[in-house]
Specification:
The complex is a heterodimer of chains A (about 90) and B (about 375).
Chain A: E1 5-14, E2 19-24, E3 27-32, E4 50-54, E5 57-62, H1 64-76, H2 79-91
Antiparallel strand pairs in A: 1-2, 1-4, 2-3, 4-5
Chain B: H1 10-28, E1 35-41, H2 42-50, H3 53-56, E2 61-68, H4 76-86, E3 91-95, H5 109-114, E4 119-121, H6 125-134, E5 139-146, H7 151-164, E6 169-175, H8 178-187, E7 195-198, H9 200-206, H10 212-216, E8 222-224, H11 229-245, E9 250-252, H12 264-273, E10 274-276, E11 279-282, E12 286-289, E13 293-295, H13 304-307, H14 323-327, H15 359-367, H16 371-382
The chains are: A alpha+beta (about 90), B alpha/beta (about 375).
The complex binds iron/sulfur cluster.
Iron/sulfur cluster (SF4) binds near residues 321, 333, 338, 349 and 360 of chain B.
């Protein structure tokens, strides 16, 4: 819950609500981009960017290296499985 | 050093360990007890155990595992309130999975669910809000938990609910805030600490400025740290360097994620929706002034405590639980009388056994092998 999980923004779902589709370890779900979106910038600009996602909200834009390293640590901590399961459940 | 080879950069790790050893040795001259550094965040605790960091540190450094696991500090009375709300027939009670097994005085949410209450695990407060949209004839309650890391997500969800005029959604708010918590730790006579590893993802939201008082007023170093083992080593080294130089500053080891000023959108949402409570009860630590938040008057319609007239009563932990002493770092988890016996991750008595970020669960999972070695450290610390 407290550690964020890296995901890659695949598409924009709702511009008004600032929702994007984010791929996390092969699971895609809607994530709010409102904490990373810069005012006056089109949301499309974030497609293909990596973000750190906390309970469904992208909180920080990160680079790919950081994303991969974080994914590795989360896997070792056993948090990856748990988060992905929770995500899948939430999506249904 | 069996784990060091797994680190992102083993060479750098070895250099850091050497430096840490050297500084610690110099600092130990004339000291009668170890240098105590607290990692505030449960994520750090988990990482420290997983990578065996305590075992590669010199014995003159003791890590104190702080109260930064929101699930672990949830008091029994609040869990009882959850169960009470969840058992109402009109309610769909939504929660993060971590909180399902936290014991209340009679039962956990998991047991309430097995007995028929409509308790559902969600990944995000947004999922709770969409349940409210889909079930207009039910009351959907979201169990809000966590420090400033998860607080913005709850705040933004409440804002969205109001914007859409959704009225069958409410929040049972148990969010807690980091600064009063650290202050309570600093003011506690039980805790003689030399420095802090600051939480990474909380700081991503609040930035570094709120910690300034720790350096200025309490004259303790704090280094905001990342979660990888190398981050933790580097941050410890930064704390030790400050101690050796007689300095007390707030430094940011995790600047690749933590911006100086935090996240504006998140902070704005928090300040719109939440205000500080007079006090909030913590499991094992008692009441800490201004450590919890509640909804502001403008959003009171979304407050489950108001909606369902919940009057929180505090309930004492079972006698055999020593969670409070573990939380304060007064005893180590395995020194609790019920550790690994009446209290295990499968059947937790105390909340520190529930979450992987809790010190007891972390010791139970990873710590067993080195306990002998650790006991020596404790004996030394005491003598
Ligand atoms: S072993 Fe159980 S009861 Fe004892 S301190 Fe840990 S969580 Fe609490």
């Amino acid at each position: 819950m407290c550690l964020g999980i890296p995901g890659k923004i695949v598409s924009i779902v709702d511009v008004e609500q600032q929702l994007g589709l984010v791929d996390v370890g092969g699971i895609q779900r809607e994530v709010s981009l409102s904490c990373v979106a810069e005012e006056g910038q089109p949301l499309e600009k974030y497609i293909d960017e990596w973000v750190l996602v906390h309970v469904g909200f992208a909180m920080s834009v990160i680079d790919e290296n950081e994303a991969q390293a974080t994914l590795a640590v989360l896997t070792e901590l056993g948090e990856m499985q748990q988060e992905l399961q929770a995500m899948q459940q939430g999506a249904s | 050093m069996k784990y060091v080879d797994e680190f992102r950069d083993p060479e750098k790790a070895k250099v850091l360990i050497n430096e840490i050893n050297e500084i610690a040795e110099r600092l130990s001259v004339g000291r009668t007890r170890p240098i105590r550094i607290m990692e505030v965040c449960g994520g750090h605790t988990h990482s420290i155990f997983r990578y065996g960091i305590e075992n590669i540190l010199p014995k003159s450094i003791e890590l104190i595992h702080g109260p930064g696991c929101p699930v672990c500090v949830l008091p029994m009375g609040r869990v009882d309130d959850c169960v009470k709300i969840a058992e109402r027939p009109e309610v769909i009670f939504t929660t993060f999975g971590d909180a399902m097994r936290v014991p209340g005085s009679k039962k956990s949410l998991l047991v309430a669910k097995a007995e028929g209450a409509d308790v559902r695990m969600v990944y995000s407060p947004m999922d709770a809000l969409s349940l409210a949209r889909k079930n207009p004839d039910r009351e959907v309650v979201f169990f809000g938990l966590g420090f400033e890391t998860t607080m913005p997500s709850t705040a933004l969800t409440v804002l969205q609910a109001k914007k859409e005029g959704i009225t069958n959604f409410s929040l049972f708010c148990n969010h807690i805030t980091i600064i009063p918590t650290v202050k309570a730790v600093l003011d506690s006579p039980d805790m003689q600490l030399e420095g802090f590893l600051g939480p990474g993802h909380v700081s991503m939201v609040i930035g570094n400025a709120p910690y300034a008082f720790i350096a200025e007023h309490y004259k303790k170093p704090l280094v905001v740290a990342g979660f990888e083992p190398l981050d933790i080593l580097q941050s410890l080294w930064m704390v030790l360097k400050q101690l050796e130089a007689g300095e007390a500053k707030v430094e940011n080891q995790y600047n690749r994620i933590v911006p100086e000023g935090g996240n504006d959108v998140a902070l704005e949402a928090i300040s719109k929706v939440f205000r500080l409570r007079e006090f909030f009860e913590w499991r094992g630590l008692g009441s800490i002034d201004h450590s919890g938040v509640q909804l502001t008057d403008e959003y009171l319609d979304y407050d489950a405590e108001t909606k369902f007239s919940i009057k929180s009563i505090s309930v004492a932990d079972p006698m055999s639980c020593q969670c409070g002493e573990v939380l304060k770092g007064v005893i180590k988890p395995w020194e609790c009388k019920v550790f690994g016996k009446a209290c295990t991750p499968e059947v937790p008595l105390g909340a520190l056994m529930v979450s992987s970020e809790g010190a007891c669960a972390a010791y139970y999972q990873y710590g067993g092998i080195e306990i002998d070695n650790e006991e020596e450290i404790v004996e030394e610390a005491v003598s």
